[in-house]
Design brief:
single chain, 409 residues, alpha/beta, FAD/NAD(P)-binding domain, D-Amino Acid Oxidase, Chain A, domain 2, 3 domains, six-stranded mixed sheet, 15 helices, 37% helix, 23% strand, globular, binds flavin-adenine dinucleotide
Length: 409
């Protein structure tokens, strides 16, 4: 098409593929440059119902439904003898009541294939090395699969490079996160959890018996395997001789995990990622915007990463559409601020989780159903629904609730 606008997207993770498909739907040429060859491993396997809305917008819902991923209907929190379940069907906000627990290698490959099906072009093993936004059009320097470098121009660039954080690094946009450095150790296991002992449709979040800012995730997949991870400050892991030993010792310290996994086969090396929380000084600039983790990443505890990544893709595609149609756009007002609103709600809840207040709320045994439904909405990722008072005034509302739960225990 003569004069068709071309958007280059760096990275084919969830934010890149969703952005690519949405831009194709709006009539633009989306080109993704992806450093790796898919399928490739990625962490971030527990989705939230809110992200199903973006998958639907991008025309990928049926493909995701047909893929046979493990259904996810809620979250199950445990700490010693305390236990609290949240079912997404009880949530306050309208919208999806379930989602999936996904092996990201397969999930990301599926989204990328769906984006391609809609006309998005993907160059695999093309790594973006440089970016120049000083001219009329953005210009990227790229190394192809033979390590031959070339330059390519676009009408706009979306950085969806995740922890690669291509433009934040190249343009000096990196800014420290407010969260302390935390580390996650994780692996995939053949879980051999016997039937009836565990609802595989729920992610399980377990607080360490004694150290309340250390927690475990157990994310069952549909093939009899689970993702198992432990999150804490690095000192917790450094007390052991290496990650392997730390992982097994910490799993053994948690009685419900040990009881669930007596026959599990640990057949995959323990992986580690440290200092993953990140921020930037600006989410956009002349000729570019940052999506997903290339912008900000908070923390894994509420499985918010993929949902935020897809929300950023959806917002950016809308703003670009208006910009390409010569309508007035304000990236701060139309992209950064609306995105940030939801991110800030998650931030409030993540902060309160590690300080302990949110754990007191979650394990409070006299929860009023209407308030639990509002908290459940946030756990389902509906953090942009301002009709929920716990979204609209997240900090004061949560502070009051924490106080109430603590004084009436
Ligand atoms: P990514 O998925 O990281 O994709 C970025 C892509 O860009 C990659 O394919 C990469 O190869 C490519 N790329 C990078 N550099 C370049 C380059 N120079 N040129 C070309 N391509 C490049 N989120 C959840 O929703 N649920 C969870 O349960 C969850 N658990 C997590 C647990 C941990 C320990 C951590 C650290 C994070 C977790 N997350 C979770 C967050 C989740 O991993 C991310 O938020 C999500 O993957 C972000 O998607 P994205 O599209 O922004 O980037």
């Amino acid at each position: 098409m003569v004069g068709q606008k071309k958007v280059i997207i760096i990275g084919a993770g969830p934010s890149g593929s969703i952005a690519g498909a949405l831009l194709q739907k709006k009539g633009y040429q989306a080109v993704i440059l992806e450093r790796e060859k898919f399928p490739r491993f990625s962490i971030g396997e527990s989705l939230l119902p809110q992200c199903m809305e973006f998958i639907e917008q991008a025309g990928m819902l049926q493909a995701v439904r047909d893929a046979g991923f493990q259904l996810k209907t809620g979250a199950d929190f445990l700490h010693n003898d305390k236990h609290s379940e949240f079912y997404f069907s009880d949530k306050f906000s309208p919208g999806f009541n379930s989602t999936y627990q996904v092996q990201r290698a397969r999930f990301d490959a599926l989204l990328a294939t769906e984006a391609q099906r809609q006309g998005c072009v993907i160059y695999w093993q093309h790594q973006v090395l440089g970016a120049d936004f000083s001219g009329d059009q953005p210009m990227l320097t790229v190394a192809d699969e033979q390590a031959v470098t070339y330059q390519v121009e676009a009408d706009f660039v979306l950085d969806a490079s995740g922890f690669g954080r291509v433009l934040p690094r190249l343009l000096n946009l990196e800014s420290p996160s407010n969260f302390p450095v935390r580390q996650a150790l994780f692996t995939h296991i053949e879980d051999r959890i016997s039937c009836g002992r565990y609802d595989r449709n729920q992610i399980r979040i377990i607080v360490h018996p004694d150290i309340t800012d250390v927690w475990y995730w157990l994310i069952p997949f549909s093939n009899g395997r689970c993702s198992l991870g432990i999150v804490g400050e690095p000192d917790v892991f450094n007390a052991f001789e290496g990650n392997q030993q730390a992982f097994h010792a910490l799993v053994a310290q948690e009685p419900t995990l040990s009881a669930l996994l007596p026959n599990a086969i640990f057949d995959t090396p323990i992986n580690s990622i440290k200092g993953y929380s990140a921020n930037v000084s600006a989410l956009f600039g002349k000729g570019y915007a940052l999506l997903g983790n290339a912008g900000e990443f908070l923390d894994p505890v509420f499985s918010s990463g993929v949902t935020i990544a897809m929300k950023s893709a959806s917002l950016a595609a809308d703003v670009l559409d208006r910009q390409f149609n010569d309508q007035p756009v304000d990236w701060q007002r139309d992209f950064a601020e609306p995105l940030q609103k939801g991110v800030d709600t998650f931030r409030t809840y993540v902060t309160a989780w590690y300080k302990g207040g949110l754990q007191d709320v979650i394990f409070y045994d006299q929860q009023q159903p209407n308030i639990k439904a509002m908290i459940c909405s946030i756990l389902a990722g509906y953090v942009w629904d301002e009709s929920n008072p716990y979204v609209k005034n997240s900090q004061p509302r949560l502070d009051t609730l924490v106080e109430l739960c603590r004084t009436t225990v």
